[in-house]
Amino acid sequence: MAFRQEPPHTHGSPARSAIVLVNLGTPDAPTRAAVKRYLKQFLSDPRVVEIPRLVWWFILNLIILPLRSGASARKYQTIWTREGSPLKVHTQQQANLLADALEERGHEGVQVRMAMRYGSPSIAQVLDELKAHNCDRIAVLPAYPQYSGTTTASIWDAVFDHYKGVRNVPELRLVKHYHDHDGYIDALHDIVLAHWEAHGRGQKLVMSFHGVPKRTLMLGDPYFCECQKTARLLATRLRLGPDDYVVTFQSRFGKAEWLQPYTAPTVQELARQGVARVDVICPGFTSDCLETLEEISMEVKHDFESAGGKEFHYIPCLNESPTWIVGLAEIAEQHLIGWPTMMSPSQREAERRDADLGRENARRLGA
């Protein structure tokens, strides 16, 4: 087996620590071709779809991709911004703010990067970049608060697959979950309260999590239980009674039974029961994306209003909220324990030289 070429190394140069914030991914553009590439990579992952590979290859390539790529592209077009995909923009901003927060806490030597499990920048690309910056201690931090084999474990697969071809593998720490972390729950609490203070409070708070096949729960995946615990903790912080909120699951795909209750039928039933206003939050998503901005804020809203509901309020994701950046820094800090994260004088000089070189290259490109 041939290993990748190691970057040039000066003996005695200090190793750095790094954090990689990994989100699910997004197409590079809201076009049919870009969405098709993204969906093919995403839906080809055996962690995502547990169907015999040969059977699934025919279903995916001959039915799903030809039929869904165009429809999905049109959905992405409804949420695309001038800066690009909302999920990618928010995740990058979170990474930038996390770096600033860690530096303020004294961890000025920690590199923070954003990566995507599917799409770009890929996990492999970012890990190679960190190796080139002499990062020999890397903590991988998924943007998924609740662990699932369909999401978090897939990140581990990508990390381990990458390092199969690397001679000098860094020390790794993998953040499994933070569904019950105080910083995360506090951030959700503040987001909901801020919305209620600005828009009043609805009759029912719907906590909509991304769905997975029910089969995964029966086979031992803890995702359902972690979603329920997040919901209980948030309800407690908000001082809600059992009748004040409901936990649902969205984004069902295919004909198999998924975790229930499903979000759209639930809000329709609430409307038929006379609930005039619902507030919907998606605690499992730390960044707004297609599933929140289009599926919930547009499609599910339409379902609710079509069933007789009067007011549908979507509460945005954590995104760059100050409380969430604090919580994210606390989570990251817990997984940096024992690693040197302060800069030595030689590291500061190296950082200065890198910054000077970057400015000079930018000047030349602009000339």
What attributes does this structure have?
Rossmann fold, four-stranded parallel β-sheet, Ferrochelatase_N, 367 residues, lyase, alpha/beta, iron
CATH topology of the largest domain, what is it called? Rossmann fold
Number of strands: 8
Enumerate how many helices there are, as a single number: 12
N/C terminus separation = 44 Å
Kindly name the structural category: alpha/beta
Instruction: Give Rg in angstroms.
Output: 22 Å
Largest sheet descriptor = 4 strands, parallel
Mean pLDDT: 93
Instruction: Name the CATH architecture of the largest domain.
Output: 3-Layer(aba) Sandwich
Q: Topology as H/E string?
A: EHHHEHEHEHEHHEHEHEHH
Q: Helix share of residues?
A: 40-55%
How many discrete domains? 2
Morphology call = globular
For the record, the CATH class of the largest domain is: Alpha Beta
Uncertain residue ranges:
none
Percent strand: 5-15%
Strand order of the largest sheet: 2-1-3-4
Pathway: Porphyrin-containing compound metabolism; protoheme biosynthesis; protoheme from protoporphyrin-IX: step 1/1
Region (Disordered): 342-367
EC number: 4.98.1.1
Enzyme class: lyase
Structure description:
The protein is α/β, with parallel strands linked by helices and 367 residues long. It has two domains: 16-178 and 323-366, Rossmann fold; 182-315, Rossmann fold. 49% of the residues lie in helices and 15% in strands. It has twelve helices and eight strands. The strands form two sheets. The protein has a four-stranded parallel beta sheet with strand order 2-1-3-4, with helices on both faces. A four-stranded parallel beta sheet has the order 6-5-7-8, sandwiched between helices. Strand 3 (135-142), helix 5 and strand 4 form a beta-alpha-beta unit. It is globular and about 70 Å long. It starts with 15 loop residues before the first strand and ends with a helix.
